[in-house]
Amino acid sequence: MTDSSEATLDTRRKRLIFRSWHRGTKEMDLLMGSFAEKHLPVLSEADVDAYERLLFEQDPDVYDWILGRLPVPAEHDTPVMTLLQGHRYA
Fold first, then answer.
1. Is the CB of residue 59 less than 8 Å from the CB of residue 68?
2. Which of 19, 21, 48, 58 has the fewest C-beta atoms under 10 angstroms from its C-beta?
3. From the record, what ranges are coiled-coil (predicted)?
């Protein structure tokens, strides 16, 4: 990865962390924000892409997928979702 692409990925990570803390519901802010702060800095670019796609989904759907109330759609059944499902925030 070049310095330019690393800087771009770092900028994306920072933007996604901000978006994760500002989802719209307190539960999702806490869950996604704490997950993003902990995991995004070390996720691969492909995993960052998968996480970013997840942020375009509606909060109630994502919340139900994470809690296992609804099956995770194939396009979001990724290692990132597995990490999210195991994530605990304090």
1. no
2. 58
3. none
